[in-house]
TrEMBL record:
Quaternary structure annotation from Swiss-Prot or TrEMBL: Homodimer.
Short sequence motif 'HIGH' region: positions: 53-62
Assigned protein family: Belongs to the class-I aminoacyl-tRNA synthetase family. TyrS type 1 subfamily.
Gene: tyrS
NCBIfam families with a match to the protein in the record: tyrS
Annotated protein name in UniProt: Tyrosine--tRNA ligase
Molecular-function annotations in GO: tyrosine-tRNA ligase activity
Pfam families: S4, tRNA-synt_1b
Record EC number: 6.1.1.1
Every RNA-binding S4 domain range: 359-416
Localization, UniProt: Cytoplasm
Lineage, highest ranks first: Bacteria, Pseudomonadati, Pseudomonadota, Alphaproteobacteria, Hyphomicrobiales
Amino acid sequence: MTHSDNPTDAFEPRSAITWTLVERGYVNQVTDLAGVDGAFAAGVVPVYAGFDATADSLHVGHLMPIMALRRLQQAGHKPIVLIGGGTTRIGDPSFRSAARPMLSEDEIAANVAGIRKVFERLLTFGDGPSDAVMVNNADWLDRMAWIDMLRDVGKHFSVNRMLSFDSVKTRLEQQENLSFLEFNYMILQAVDFLELFRRTGCRLQLGGGDQWGNIVGGVDLLRRIEGAEVFGMTTPLLTTASGVKMGKTAAGAVWVNEDRLSPYDYWQFWRNAEDADVVRFLKLFTELPIDEIERLGRAEGAELNAVKERLANEATALVHGRQAADHAQQTARQAFGQGEAAAGLPTVELDDAERTAGVMLIDLLVRAGLAASKSEARRAISGRGVRIDGEVVEDGDGLLTVAGRPLRLSLGKKRHVVVK
């Protein structure tokens, strides 16, 4: 099994979907690109990607493998969405400095219900050859006997090799504790691939860049136990041009579920993309044709703002629907162009006591998601970046009272909430 950090160098694909994945930037590492391409050209390939239920919503950092699954389905291949109801109970240690918090079974079940919504918007589920299916690895992991797992699976894993993977080495080199519980995660993920191969004929596992070691373990296990030629592929761990990991902002995660983040704020996240990221994001997170993206990429100056709005509209429409995207755009234009608080902006409601006594502005900035902490809120105020109804706030220690009409609280020029 071989791979390259630039697996697409000097490679001419036989399958159109391979070219699409490469051209749009979905391919990072792959165990055998020529083999994957040959499988795509030969017929329908079941492809799976796994998602642990660590929260009740996914964030935009998860969208890369989901969008790749969407592309594969459009090309006639079969997506398998694996929800980690079992592996969530352990927690993936990949490139983490500490163990994930342990969740109860009820918490995991609630999270599973929450993240289902994302896949139902982006993939077509059903019983057809290329229809997506959703499975939960708790269905087989919860029934697995410990001795059977050691005898049938564990014997194929070399501890020496497991310790050599970057995700494990990083943790150990930083002298952070790696529990035996977490160390088993790689084995359980390999079991998932084995189980899906036996149930569905799955031949490709897709995951984020931090999953490479786990994915390679599964490919190797299939070769040893089943003598099967299967493949692994990772999408890039996406960062912005300035090096910030996708999915995070100063105010927290960019959630995909609208009950965690409003469609307006989701739209604003894409609208505020750095200039250097616009073309790349259009390729990855919209379905605009490549030639149109290249044309849009030639925009400069004020024209680039219109391209960013196009990015925000297309990316938001995929996740929240076209109507929500159009409404977010209209709300943004109204908020930027008028002094009054715009309908459709995220809203913070004060209770009776707060309306009477007032609320500390720095507390309100954090509560509204405009700042991640009180210290960050103070810095924004001292930097003259906070406005109320367009007027710069000079005193961060004052109480804000709302009587009568709502107020518009703004951070910078593009982030607004209504306080009422």
